[in-house]
Amino acid sequence: MQQQKLLSSRSLIVVAVLLAALALLPTMASRYYIYLVALMMVTGLLATSLNMVLGFGGMYQFNHAVFYGAGAYAAALLTVRGGFNPWWGYLLGPVMAAALSLLMGIICVRLSKLYFGMLQISLGSLVWAVVFRWYSFTGGDDGMHGVPSPRLIGSIDGAYYFVLIVTVVCLALMYLIVNSPFGRVFQSIRDNPERAEAIGVNVHLHQLIGLVIAGFFGGVAGTLFVTVEGSVFPDMLFWTLSLEIIIMCLLGGWFTFLGPMLGAGIVVSLRAVVGIYTDYWTMVLGIILMLLIFFLPEGVLGFFTARLGRGRAAGEGD
Amino acid sequence: MDLASHITLAALGQQLLVGLSRTTILFIVSSGLSLILGVLRIPNVSHGSLYMIGAFVTYSVATLIGGQTGFWVALAAAPVVVGLFSLAVERGIFCHLYEREHLMLLLFTFSLMLVLGDLVKLIWGSDYRSLSAPPMLQGSFSLAGMPFPRYNLFLLMIGPLVALGLWALTNKTKIGKIARAAAVDREMVAAMGINVSWVFAFVFCLGCLMAGLGGALVAPTQNITQGMDHTIIMEAFLIVIIGGLGNMWGALLGAAIFGITDSIGILVWPQFAIVFPYVAVTIVLIFRPKGLLKSTW
Amino acid sequence: MLSVQGLSKSFGPFLAVADANLEVARGEVVAVIGPNGAGKTTLFKLITGQLKPDGGRVLFKGQDIAGLSPHRVCRLGLSLSYQVVNIFSRMSVFENVQVAVLARRRQVLRLFTPAAHLAVDETWEILNSVGLAEKAAVTSGTLSHGDSKVLEMAIALGNRPELLIMDEPTAGMSPEETRAAMALIRRLNTEMGLTILFCEHDMELVFNLAQRIMVMRQGRTIAQGTCDEVRCDEKVQQAYLGGHDHA
Question: Does the residue A281 lie in any domain?
Fold first, then answer.
């Protein structure tokens, strides 16, 4: 019997070329573009982490930005208020985000669909409100600026390479997870939770683990944001950002692995490009999205993979 | 920190009344959202934008005409403008989307919110505006030794009127009864030979009109700014959920919980006042995830 | 192997199952028959844990499983193939079955092993035995109705159950597909030694396949026995077979 390979040789070549281009970027591009690409990778990682539960788990994770913010704030607070070495912040930020995700997950996981999403938004708003008003600790609505980075990655090039390496490692891990037995079963829960339970899957436990994984990688994205920007602010936890990330997943196609990455790239570059010509770039984004939902509900990548007759769900993005 | 030392009974009563007048606004906005959710099944994220538009229109009309009459004209005009606008949006866009998944509708209305937000910025600019209450509602009167703003008293009187009107409209009129029946069983109503599409248009328009009215009423009490749509829509959604989706009395109950915990929070621990309602909502949702009253879903 | 004793369940004022009794011995093929609304599907859902009974006992291999959650019941070796097609529609046929095999092997929490290397042979074995191997790569949501019913059965087999419960396995199938399904069910019983409990409206199929039959009416067991015993039972003739058409 044939053995399926994790990556086809053709997609391996594409990935290798893409990686080489990204690795060489700092030698060719200006500071601004390096920064922009780093931001794309951070946002893409965030969207991909959301898609673990949204696209592959079918869970209405409406407040994913909270874990992004939690990772970022945990890293910044440990460094600035706790006086820890920034590396400790980077290490513990995602862990704290995962812990928050576990806590919120335990409360929400027994609900489904819209009710799950709303309880999560409510809990997330609670976290946001605390961060927003706790001036003495989190800096309140001003956020915190000038969070120090380790000297090794203090320069823009250093930060870029750090973001690149961490993003690639995280994407690889998530790709493994999506294609692992865990990922397969998670997709079966998305398609049909009742049947998944009937074939012997502990659905709620599985979903809870999925939430923790998504929260962890969301937290990694948050700490990478601190590396790039050196600051954190409460808008990182706000529900509008959460919906924006969902939009990125939709834009790229949420039944594909790399779709959210693509969607994040589109949104970030749109903001940068359209932002040059007009202050009203969100209007442009909104109109594009409305057209997209009207005409292409499977997303850009989803649309093209379906066209190519390879519209299979199982994370075959290449 | 001295948390509770300055709380007297009079202050508590005063804050309760303030909370209840806040409840009026929240109820008006969230009952509209709840109506649309219950009957049309659309989680309309752009509801908050309509509230913001209502507030800006009120400001423009009131300052254009000026004086006592200006405010009253604006109060009538804003909901009408918002209602007509939403009717156009419903006929143009939403009536083609009823069969989509909730998540898609949510994202679609979120996109609409982004567009409307920038539209407001385009028309009114990004500065904040403020509008004073009409002369007869300015100032405050004394209540057990504590000052209580006249405008809040006005809100306290408007609230029950709106609730009563909405109740009469949905329970006593033919179209209201049809709408309630359609909320429970769409196919059956359609099978009775009623044009469900226009009933839906009416309900959508009515719900959005409530958002406009809420925006108009809130205009003299706070700065009218970009971003007021983000706050209100989150609050309105949570209110609708804790009350029970599509249940008008649930919206009233939810709004009261939200408004009162908020005002008590201001009294007890001003710095973290905005946290209080979210704590209340979370507690309700943990124990009653489908809301306090019966949902129409 | 399975013993249902005095099981009952009501939905509000409606008594769906009032007093159901059933015995299934290892290696048997047993059919449950009865008019529409007799409570057959409810009975199956009560046995597999999807509904919690109001009263009565369900003994499986001597253990009372009434009220256990579905995934626990399944792990004891009892799986259900549904009446309405209930598959994982965005996944391939192969993955549909593989997921069930993985669930049985308790490998579902492995995070970093590629699923492509796990449970592959066993999944192919099942696909071959039910005749779906050629369609392994097809997205299951696009299968024909007959094929999805077979896949439905294949998913249940993925759990390698000792007792397979099938709720109207041939509902909606063409005569040709029905004949194939019948052969398959018989083979599962004789070759793989599976104990099978099913319900069906097609009397020809019932009397062909089943060794014993339980008859339900209005939520109650009114007769139980071999095909001939049931055929001759007065109550059954009166309530079910008599006067009505047999189809």
Answer: no
Class of domain C1-77+162-247 as given by CATH:
alpha beta
ipTM summary value = 0.86
The verdict on residue A312 lying in a domain is no
Task: Count structural domains, chain A.
Answer: 1
* Residue C199, amino acid: C
Non-local CB neighbours of C156 within 8 Å, separated by 6+ positions: A199, C79, C80, C81, C100, C164, C166
Residue pair B213/B165 in contact (Cβ under 8 Å)? The answer is no
Query: What are the DSSP E strand ranges found in chain A?
Result: none
Distances (CA, A) of B57 to A133, B45, B129, C171: 31, 20, 11, 61
**Rounded distance between C-alpha atoms, residue B15 and residue B28, angstroms:** 20
Chain B residues closer than 8 Å to A138 by CB: none
Report the candidate in C160, C169, C161 with the shortest Cα–Cα distance to residue C201.
Answer: C169
Q: Is A306 a member of any domain?
A: no
CA nearest A2 in C: which residue?
C120
Answer yes or no: are the C-beta atoms of A201 and C79 closer than 8 Å.
Answer: no
Question: Per residue in C155-173, pLDDT tens?
Answer: 999 988 999 999 988 888 8
Mean pLDDT, residues C177-191 = 89
Inter-chain CB proximity B115 and A240 less than 8 Å: no
Range of the domain at A190: 16-238
Residue-wise pLDDT tens digits, B176-229: 888 888 777 777 777 777 788 888 899 999 999 999 999 999 999 999 999 899
Residue A97 lies in a domain: yes
Cβ-defined contact of A286 to B237 (cutoff 8 Å):
no
Q: Which residues of B touch A287 (CB under 8 A)?
A: 111, 115
Contact B47, B229 (CB under 8 A): no
State how far residue A293 is from chain B, nearest Cα, in angstroms. Answer: 7
Query: Is the Cβ of A279 closer than 8 Å to some Cβ of chain B?
Result: yes
What span, in angstroms and rounded, lies between the C-alpha atoms of C80 and C86? 11
Asked if A195 and C69 come within 8 Å (Cβ–Cβ), the reply is no
Residues of chain C with CATH 3.40.50.300: 1-77+162-247
